Amino acid sequence: MSHWIEPHPTGIYVRPADAWIDPSVPRERALVTHGHADHARGGHGRVWATRETLAIMALRYGTTAGAAVGYGEDFRLGGVSIRYVPAGHVLGSAQIVLEHAGERVVVTGDYKRRADPTCLPFEPVPCDIFVTEATFALPVFRHPDTGSEIDRLLGALHANPDRCVLVGAYALGKAQRLIAELRARGHHDAIYIHGALERMCALYGSFGVELGELRLATGLPAKAMRGAIVVAPPSALNDRWSRRLPDPITAMASGWMRIRQRARQRNVELPLVISDHADWDELTGTIREVAPNETWITHGRDEALAHWCMTHQMRARALALVGREDEDEG
């Protein structure tokens, strides 16, 4: 096992670079994979991330001390060669490829293998150590085709012209992807959004992600949103804000909607299995593809994925990092 990269509860320490990957506490040097709060935070002395992730961190956490890293661009810290490649998770998300002492380590952050019109696709990189998430690392989690889930949403909308469809979607990544997927399926009417989504949608637009006509739902009469799609953070689905909408069909876009009990707990009428994480087959297929000597599992259903690795004669270990939440799945 490598002795130059060390997993700690608060992050992964790259010793010769004196830098931490996705640390959950402030560090002098931080290499950040993407902008979700369980991977990125304020207070670091210096941050290396993609230009998009730095913009997200500035918007969400006020981070200003950052060095922008382009995809595929090599730089060095303390003798470690470092390269960021796309992770396919959200805008600006990256895997961090580290090379030192004849070894290559890939830290994926969070990732998915499905096509996403709002970010670059995952790029597999063969390596010695592969550091992977395990959010949906159980065989029950096999995500359906995204287009078919969008068609279900549009079918519910067209069958209920006097109602609206209120979709819960996380503010960074999921909301923008949902809107872009709707556009790709031919829905070009105005989409109404909760005010909490406005700035992040504008940021996506500033990086060339076309989301079409968006209107703030706040303050509008109910009749204005009949026959429309309204996108809001999951926390808004059942609060006072949603009560003024025209008899909403409550939907939720999440990989967790595969579990019926989760949908019932949230009073979701239309569960949409749309995830920004890899499902079971994609996780195991990715490990086969990059063919590491050892797999490190950061968070999620780590026992199941570690067991799968061992039954396929692959070395694996769970890292038990603190502060990792499935935030973007709501």
CATH-assigned homologous superfamily of the largest domain: Ribonuclease Z/Hydroxyacylglutathione hydrolase-like
Q: How does CATH name the architecture of the largest domain?
A: 4-Layer Sandwich
Please state the oligomeric state of the protein chains shown.
single chain
Gyration radius, in Å: 20 Å
CATH fold name of the largest domain? Metallo-beta-lactamase, Chain A
Shape: globular
Q: Quote the beta fraction.
A: 25-35%
Report the end-to-end length measured between terminal Cα atoms: 35 Å
Average of per-residue pLDDT values: 94
Low-confidence residue ranges: none
Protein name: RNA procession exonuclease-like protein
InterPro entries: MBL, Metallo-B-lactamas, RibonucZ/Hydroxyglut_hydro, Xnuc_lig_assoc
Domain Metallo-beta-lactamase: 8-170
Keywords: Exonuclease, Hydrolase, Nuclease
List the helices and strands and how they pair.
Layout: E1 5-8, E2 11-14, E3 19-21, E4 29-31, E5 46-49, H1 51-61, E6 66-68, E7 74-77, E8 80-86, E9 94-100, E10 103-107, E11 129-134, H2 146-159, E12 165-168, H3 174-184, E13 191-193, H4 198-206, E14 214-216, E15 229-232, E16 249-253, H5 260-265, E17 270-272, H6 280-290, E18 294-300, H7 302-311, E19 315-318
Parallel strand pairs: 3-4, 4-5, 5-6, 10-11, 11-18, 12-15, 12-16, 13-14, 13-15, 16-17, 18-19
Antiparallel strand pairs: 1-2, 2-3, 7-8, 8-9, 9-10
Would you mind describing this structure in some detail?
The chain is 22% helix and 25% strand. By secondary structure, it is α/β, with parallel strands linked by helices. The protein has a 7-stranded mixed sheet with strand order 7-8-9-10-11-18-19, with helices on one face. The protein has a 6-stranded mixed sheet with strand order 1-2-3-4-5-6. A hairpin with a 4-residue loop joins strand 2 and strand 3 (19-21). The model has no long low-confidence stretch (mean pLDDT 94).
